[in-house]
Fold this protein.
Amino acid sequence: GAVVSQHPSWVICKSGTSVKIECRSLDFQATTMFWYRQFPKQSLMLMATSNEGSKATYEQGVEKDKFLINHASLTLSTLTVTSAHPEDSSFYICSASSGVVRETQYFGPGTRLLVL
Amino acid sequence: RKEVEQDPGPFNVPEGATVAFNCTYSNSASQSFFWYRQDCRKEPKLLMSVYSSGNEDGRFTAQLNRASQYISLLIRVSQLSDSATYLCVVRTDKLIFGTGTRLQVFP
């Protein structure tokens, strides 16, 4: 299957700092990338959907000014958590779709964020 | 009411046992249905799609009842490596994940 990578795999930061997470599709062109968040013992929740070259579409309740998404190329999307706070500590997972079979999403390994 | 509901478990079963998980969804307009497997601190991985006619993949059998908005997963001859959390996933205009059912297979 298609391979999606994320970097970093984990990050610990102080409250108030910004954290950038990268999501890359390694062997296919991802026209659409998705960003999810999963809190302990909860389900994955979609945060936003991004299409290459256009603005991301955010789910209700997700602050677009706090979670900045950039999808500048067909193989790279970034999520920046600006001024992170302890309540932002979570498991962030991206997925990518080539759009050929839209419902097939390939998930990255996730980034675990801990904000102190 | 959650869009996708699952019994969180855990289900503790011995090796070789048969175990069944159930899931209900609230949106009758849902288009596609899946079971994913998620290991601890890992990303979810697609186990199988679920079709109205029912489908089987080795030891795994999935069923969908659109009238009842009910999805099931049956695992036969459980193995230690089956221990994981099984996520019921429904697609409307996006993927909606259940919270998962934890399975622990013991020797």
In short: Chain B has a mean pLDDT of 95.
